[in-house]
Amino acid sequence: MTLTLYTFDWLPEFPRGFVRDLRVRWGLEEIGRSYQVATVPAHPKSAEHRKLQPFTQVPVIQDGEQTLFESGAILVYLCEGTPLLPDDRKAEIWQWLFAALNTVELSVMHWVSMILAERVPEFFGPPPAADVKAHAKADMDTKLTALQQALGDKEWLAGDFSVADIAMVEVLRVVAAEEALDAHPHLAAYVERATSRPAFKKAMADHMQHWQTADAEQAKRSTG
Amino acid sequence: MTLTLYTFDWLPEFPRGFVRDLRVRWGLEEIGRSYQVATVPAHPKSAEHRKLQPFTQVPVIQDGEQTLFESGAILVYLCEGTPLLPDDRKAEIWQWLFAALNTVELSVMHWVSMILAERVPEFFGPPPAADVKAHAKADMDTKLTALQQALGDKEWLAGDFSVADIAMVEVLRVVAAEEALDAHPHLAAYVERATSRPAFKKAMADHMQHWQTADAEQAKRSTG
Question: Which site among B67, B92, B106, B174 would you substitute to test the A interface, given the most A Cβ atoms closer than 10 Å to its Cβ?
Fold first, then answer.
């Protein structure tokens, strides 16, 4: 059965490499499942998109009769029972999956959205004062210090590489892109280790190719 | 086998009624499973606590050999296969569980932590300027409007009452406490419906009794 992954039709440069269809592409490459890509308009959002995804976010998948959104839920759905989410380690993997997408991402996005407000205020709103950002940064660093200590010398969070690592690394890549992961060298090495995997490289290449194709199509339309 | 739920030994008034052991107590009451409560010191945090929970948060559970943190993972672990997370609706329940704990909670906590900074700056840092808060509020309201539309006339998010409703209602209760849910009357009714359940009432009563007992013990110690 063909699996369809929805992402946006086009986006500006700044979110490319970080749009959440990448998390799902990565998981699909890891488990060796093929898929096709479909798009929804990024701007303006469509009623069809809202029917698929009430928050007009991506990704969404369609797998036969099953339509599903939220990258965390999609990863669980696709990978349950595979080596990325085997039954005998599932509780620990869930634990780290929620740690990534709740505990760590809440702190990371609280700070990152303040930083991005300086660059893209039309999207992220007016930038907060320096002391507000500094507090958010300190809160994030407390979480990252704790995470680094919990990871210790382990290669991955919960035994072998799992969906929890996909989620956590995708959250940490945002920190790394803001050059704020250097203070946590074990986490930087963890991200490096994960993003060296062939499945990540393939997923990222396909993700970036999608935007390049979208650019080319847009250029064709504007000159056509 | 006795299940142990860890929460803090004592907390000031403001977070009571919202500490995340409540989410787990609620789930346990719904499935009719008994448990005992153990505590970790809220301040200063202990090395024993960090061994149980790397971010020194609560809740943590111990169930025989299984120690587990992250309230989302604990709810899945405890409720898998029960009417709160039955196999035949699990993908949809996972979807709404992550919608609650990632999409909605990220926006809610981004705004609420700015509001709480006015009241408890020693914990939440310096309060941001009014325009920064207004942008965070608008972002949250966009999510809540979309959620209300997705809920529509349904009683619960994914068929019968599920762990996704526990998570979503616990996130929305924070908004309601800041009197910001009135603009979304269907969500306010949803919270009212959920918190009228006997399992919620029992969980909340036990949660509040825990702090009252802690107050009494602290008073005893200080006069003893």
Answer: B106
Tell whether B197 is within 8 A of chain A (Cβ): no
Give per-residue pLDDT as tens, B56-114: 999 999 999 999 999 999 999 999 999 999 999 999 999 999 999 999 999 999 999 99
**Å from A73 to nearest chain B CA?**
5
Give which of B112, B135, B124, B108 is closest to A126, Cα–Cα: B135
Q: Does B145 touch chain A (CB under 8 A)?
A: no
What's domain A88-197's architecture? Up-down Bundle (1.20)
Q: What angle do CA A90, A95, A101 make, to 5 degrees?
A: 120
| Ranges of each domain in chain A | 3-83+199-223, 88-197
Q: What fold characterizes domain B3-83+199-209?
A: Glutaredoxin (3.40.30)
Give the tens place of pLDDT for each residue, A147-156: 999 999 999 9
CB-based contacts of B34: which residues, under 8 Å, 6+ apart? Answer: B2, B3, B28
Write down the ipTM of this complex: 0.97
